[in-house]
């Protein structure tokens, strides 16, 4: 994630009309980028970078409430409602086709066919979609494991992975492999070295006993997707707490969780995004993460909150998702409601919901 802090100064009139025009263009482009705090990357933006970082553990994990850097997963509701079908509701989709597809999903969730979705039905659906994301991760892991296991022996050593990782960052693969084999010092910048140290710690954690720094395909899956391994889930939680914990007590207070990243807001748009950041994180902390409402989130509470296969969390999430669209307050979700609030469930606005519901159902 990149936070851009834009500071632009007016060019001297001596620079001439061309320079002044460039400055104006730069100012216009930077206005939208001046907001800093939240991770606003969408699923579609992340997909564009997927190939580049396929062997690097992703910051974003499908169906998990927080990103690895501690930011809220902005696509969570769509991920646990649509599963692997998220791309079917992108901006280029034909609205009528999208409405019909949404009504098909409604029918699949509505197990008892009473044209109403209950919290229990939604909970069951969320668990199914989360499992679907995991199966997708397993399939992708098989491909990624093959990319870092050049000799095909079914094991990946830390050195093999390190070569592939540095090659993905633009280093010469042969030179890096020779340097590692000859125990020579690697010529990498300080930031890359820090990333390598963090990855090595994660590699050790994924390496089940007996520890040998060799990962099997299953262990490599835990390395890339810690959310589906109990031991790695604990490790992921420790990493998030370490990043957000300001007083070193290994737990999170509300001020720590809603604390804004360092930066400067230059305009009202940036201030509004700051305010929304704080509002969203406060709500998540108070209503969902802090289960005993004592104002402190322990590692255990955060682990339960992050666990994608926690059935209690799935039921809680189901109730909240229904409440968002439950206009008649009957604690169920009906076709008209899900079409009206389609942006919440699918990320896309599907207009004329009232007129089209009978056509599509």
Automatic annotation (TrEMBL):
Keywords: Calcium, Glycoprotein, Golgi apparatus, Metal-binding, Repeat, Signal. The keyword Repeat applies. It is found in: Golgi apparatus lumen. Coiled coil: none annotated. Residues 1-35 form the signal peptide. It comes from the Eukaryota. GO terms for biological process: calcium-ion regulated exocytosis; fat cell differentiation. One of its GO terms (cellular component) is Golgi lumen. InterPro entries: CAB45_EFh, EF-hand-dom_pair, EF_Hand_1_Ca_BS, EF_hand_dom. Residues 97-132, 136-171, 232-267, 277-312 form the EF-hand domain. The keyword Methyltransferase does not apply. GO terms for molecular function: calcium ion binding. Belongs to the CREC family. This is 45 kDa calcium-binding protein. It comes from Mesocricetus auratus (Golden hamster).
């Amino acid at each position: 994630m990149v936070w851009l802090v834009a500071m632009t100064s007016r060019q001297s009139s001596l620079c001439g009309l061309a320079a002044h025009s460039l400055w104006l263009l730069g100012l216009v482009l930077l206005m939208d980028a001046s907001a800093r705090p939240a991770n606003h990357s969408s699923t579609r933006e992340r997909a564009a970078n997927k190939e580049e970082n396929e062997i690097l553990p992703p910051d974003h994990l499908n169906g998990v409430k927080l990103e690895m850097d501690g930011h809220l997963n902005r696509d969570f509701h769509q991920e646990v409602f649509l599963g692997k079908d998220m791309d079917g509701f992108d901006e280029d989709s034909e609205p009528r086709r999208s409405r019909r597809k949404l009504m098909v999903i409604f029918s699949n969730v509505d197990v008892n066919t009473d044209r109403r979705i209950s919290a229990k039905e939604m909970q069951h659906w969320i668990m199914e979609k989360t499992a679907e994301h995991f199966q997708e991760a397993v399939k992708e892991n098989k491909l990624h494991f093959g990319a870092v296991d050049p000799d095909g022996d079914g094991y990946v050593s830390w050195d093999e992975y390190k070569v592939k990782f540095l090659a993905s960052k633009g280093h010469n693969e042969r030179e890096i492999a020779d340097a590692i084999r000859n125990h020579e010092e690697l010529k990498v910048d300080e930031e890359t070295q820090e990333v390598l140290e963090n990855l090595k710690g994660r590699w050790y954690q994924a390496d089940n006993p007996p520890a040998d720094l060799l990962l099997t395909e299953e262990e490599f899956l835990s390395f890339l997707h810690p959310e589906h391994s109990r031991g790695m889930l604990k490790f992921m939680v420790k990493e998030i707490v370490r990043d957000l914990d300001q007083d070193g007590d290994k737990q999170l207070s509300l001020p720590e969780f809603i604390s804004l990243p360092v930066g400067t807001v230059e305009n009202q748009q940036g201030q509004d995004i700051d305010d929304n950041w704080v509002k969203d994180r406060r709500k998540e902390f108070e209503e969902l993460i802090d289960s005993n409402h004592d104002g402190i989130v322990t590692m255990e509470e955060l682990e339960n909150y992050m666990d994608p296969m926690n059935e209690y969390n799935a039921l809680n999430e189901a109730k909240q998702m229904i409440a968002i669209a439950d206009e008649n307050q009957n604690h169920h979700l009906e076709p008209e409601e899900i079409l009206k609030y389609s942006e919440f469930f699918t990320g896309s606005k599907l207009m004329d919901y009232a007129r089209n519901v009978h056509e599509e159902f």
